[in-house]
């Protein structure tokens, strides 16, 4: 990002102009930097401090010990499990949909993309409510499947309900990311492989998949990360066994006044997210180098 | 996927599966829109009889929705103003100047979009609680701006990058001052992007839930928090109507962004091409 943003280095006679441009840049960057330092970085920093502070103000790690034992630990595992399930499903569905859209004629592709993008801008709360109406015992899904054995199915207030909900929230991200990746694949490479006698399966496995797999990995990781902090859908569509870490943070702050514990869980969530983001970065630089190699 | 490619059966299967996934995305929204006119909001689908009662109930006496709606609108308006100020200055700094630590500033801007919102909300709660600012619309707006301003910055970065700097250089070479250039060239060209940034900031704040929930008090409850409470504690059928309104609002906002983009798309070309310059100089349209 930095490399593309930086303008070409100014020549020596323009040095005066350049220093003026630097001053203007710093001046204009001030509002955003100050704002986010005060209302974003500092609050997170004080969350970190609070998670390390005992009731009497001394240093302690026992909030973390609490957060990583007993019920809290199982909530953490539930969070990881639901996020993983969501990531896998939104990756698979996203792959199929992006694949189908990338074959459509521009008009149809545009319309399909509209169906992908518009829900993303509708409040997650509202979409979750839509799922609750649809998945109930007398909802659209069970009415439609009334002929099937075992109907009505219980699709709500269990893990299936939560994963259906979170997957539909993450799907726009994966579809858009994968669509971009698929359009970026150099079709000539596939044609070259075909001309040398490679079969469809071979081309898919040896050429196509290696080219799109970094994109697949980042899309999956991203939906995993974004699911970690999810609260609305698990709280409204899940049962007691689907309590996620964000629900716990919310409960401790609003009901139990237990800020230190909430802070420790927030920091754990933050660390998991940052680790995921580092992985995304590693994967995408791997992808860039792979692309370069295959093109040469 | 690939091996299915050219066979007819494969194509049909792929299309069918893709259609199901698209329905998976669209149906929750369609169902709400339909149910909001249904006589029996929580029973069967599709509805047997139709009604406007839920919409009427929204604005009936003693309804708690108008207060939530106006609070959310107020908060979103304040947040939009802050986001635009931050967005315009930050985008200018990032695109049009020599900024030291540029990538660090950019990472800072992306931060709120990547960090779980519940963590940001918790931090803001710890900031505003000691200041006794819980329930203050200003505090909620300040909090929302943390999430909305990065979106505004990203949109305005794209906008500024799309403006041909030669236009500004040309104006400068003809003796236009900095203010004149900003007013006559940059601002008109950036206006569609600024409107888009404003609309997205507004929606972001209007729909925001986590920060609102942590910063709200009993008296000041934003619309999403009210919807959430209504879904968890006191089931109120008019929540379908308010949800439908929120959907209509989102679609309207997206449509507006598309319209503004479309109207603005011709501007730069008209300034750059010679034929049109004649048209500008000769507004009556009588070509030489």
UniProtKB/TrEMBL annotation, chain A:
Residues 76-280 form the ABC transmembrane type-1 domain. SUPFAM superfamilies: MetI-like. Keywords: Cell membrane, Membrane, Transmembrane, Transmembrane helix, Transport. It is a multi-pass membrane protein. GO terms for biological process: transmembrane transport. The chain crosses the membrane at residues 24-45, 82-101, 108-135, 155-179, 207-232, 262-283. It comes from the Bacteria. Gene3D superfamilies: MetI-like. It holds the Pfam family BPD_transp_1. InterPro entries: MetI-like (IPR000515), MetI-like_sf (IPR035906). Its main location: membrane. PROSITE patterns: ABC_TM1. It is found in: Cell membrane. The keyword Transport applies. GO terms for cellular component: plasma membrane. The keyword Transmembrane helix applies. Belongs to the binding-protein-dependent transport system permease family. CysTW subfamily. This is ABC transporter permease.
Automatic annotation (TrEMBL), chain B:
The keyword Cell inner membrane applies. It is found in: Cell inner membrane; Cell membrane. The chain crosses the membrane at residues 12-37, 68-93, 105-128, 140-160, 181-203, 241-263. It comes from Streptomyces flaveus. It is a multi-pass membrane protein. GO terms for biological process: transmembrane transport. Residues 69-258 form the ABC transmembrane type-1 domain. Belongs to the binding-protein-dependent transport system permease family. GO terms for cellular component: plasma membrane. InterPro entries: MetI-like, MetI-like_sf. This is ABC transporter permease. Keywords: Cell inner membrane, Cell membrane, Membrane, Transmembrane, Transmembrane helix, Transport.
